[in-house]
Design a protein that fits this description.
With 122 residues, the protein is an all-alpha fold. It has two domains: 5-44; 66-122, no CATH class. Helix content is 64%, strand content 0%. It has helices at residues 5-16, 21-28, 32-44, 61-70, 76-83, 87-97, 106-121. Helix 5 (76-83) crosses helix 6 (87-97). The longest helix is centred in the last third of the chain and has 16 residues, at 106-121. The N and C termini lie far apart (56 Å).
């Protein structure tokens, strides 16, 4: 989460009025380290938040989805062999995409309901 430019400017103006960084942190609801970083950033000339580079993915999302749709019963290790990565990479890619491997067994749900009814009737 990044703080707004307006909040940053107000906090730094408050410090310039002679207040301490600790008091400023308490009043504006941020940590003293955040205030310190804003002061350093202002000295460098800008209050803009840092821009972080997004690292490229090893696994193409579209190809992974297509492979899983074509092979719904494939194990993680089989998918990993196909994409030449570790199975944990496939696990995290599926988690990121919201793909689960858990099967829904309707028969078991019905059996559980029957058992619950049977126990309640005793």
């Amino acid at each position: 989460m990044t703080y707004s430019q307006d909040l940053r400017k107000k906090a730094l103006e408050y410090i310039e009025q002679g207040n301490s960084q600790k008091d400023t942190a308490v009043i504006f609801g941020v940590t003293s380290r955040t205030i310190w970083n804003w002061v350093l950033r202002k000295n460098k000339g800008t209050l803009q938040p840092k821009k972080y580079a997004v690292s490229p993915r090893k696994i193409n999302n579209d190809l992974l989805i297509k492979y899983i749709n074509n092979n719904p019963d494939a194990y993680l290790r089989e998918i990993a062999e196909e994409f030449k990565v570790d199975p944990s990479a496939i696990f995290y890619a599926c988690k990121r995409l919201g793909i689960t491997f858990k099967k829904k067994r309707r028969i078991i749900k019905k059996d559980v309901k029957k058992k619950e009814k049977h126990l309640l009737n005793k």
